Amino acid sequence: MKITWLGHAGFRIEFGGQVLLVDPWFTGNPVFPDGRRGEAIAGATHVLVTHGHGDHSGDAPGIAREKGIPVVGKYDLVSWMEKREGIRTIGFNTGGTVRLGEVAVTMVRAAHSSSMAGPDGAPVYVGSEAGFMIAHGGRTIYVSGDTDVMADMAVFQELHQPEIGILSAGGHFTMDMERAAWAARRFFDFKTVIPCHFKTFGLLEQSADRMKAALPGVQVIEPEVMVPITL
């Protein structure tokens, strides 16, 4: 398994013979290096989106069209994309599971919001926010999406038993490092935690030090953009 941070909440996950781009955001992303987009999307098989906000879904249609691959996510959101952008999609909903090759992706709840800018700039709501459980060969990754702590996380652990948590942890719009660490400690039995949705802007957390201090015995990996992590 290889996990590469694309900056902000975006990841390239090479797992079970698939190359999944989760919330890839390149256009306007201040921490993604110029000239490396092609490398980031090379060989991609699917684009997964957790919700409609532009810093998560904005580049999905263009990648899908360029690579001839589907966008996978909340039925309401991807159906809107399909009609507007003329791309292939795989829509499902909370609690549902789709098979992407040999990889099973289950949609789980998150606590955030989900909208896109309408013609007049006002938000248009496009289904609810979500996270994903991505499983293959007895290993499961939990991608939290943008969220706060939820009691539902206890159910996620019991049902899915993820060994890796990719957790939003930048604060202001999502959990911060302390809250994300509390959720990991209280609800999960992770071997590895990778924080995201941080460092992008000044109002977000700039370091994972607080998470590392709060999770002794857990491998907390502070990712670097476009540096693969092999697990």
Please outline the helices and strands:
Blueprint: E1 2-5, E2 11-15, E3 18-22, H1 37-41, E4 46-48, H2 54-57, H3 60-67, E5 71-74, H4 75-85, E6 89-92, E7 97-100, E8 103-109, E9 115-117, E10 123-125, E11 130-136, E12 139-143, H5 152-160, E13 164-168, H6 177-187, E14 192-196, H7 209-214, E15 219-220, E16 229-230
Parallel strand pairs: 3-4, 4-5, 5-6, 12-13, 13-14, 14-15
Antiparallel strand pairs: 1-2, 1-16, 2-3, 7-8, 8-11, 9-10, 11-12
Q: Say which CATH homologous superfamily is assigned.
A: Ribonuclease Z/Hydroxyacylglutathione hydrolase-like
In terms of DSSP E residues, the strand content is 25-35%
Largest sheet properties: 7 strands, mixed
Structural class computed from helices and strand pairing: alpha/beta
Total count of strands: 16
Number of helices: 7
What does the overall shape look like? globular
- Average of per-residue pLDDT values: 97
Major beta sheet, strand line-up: 6-5-4-3-2-1-16
Outline of the structure:
By secondary structure, the protein is an alpha/beta fold. The chain is built from seven helices and 16 strands. It has helices at 37-41, 54-57, 60-67, 75-85, 152-160, 177-187, 209-214; strands spanning 2-5, 11-15, 18-22, 46-48, 71-74, 89-92, 97-100, 103-109, 115-117, 123-125, 130-136, 139-143, 164-168, 192-196, 219-220, 229-230.
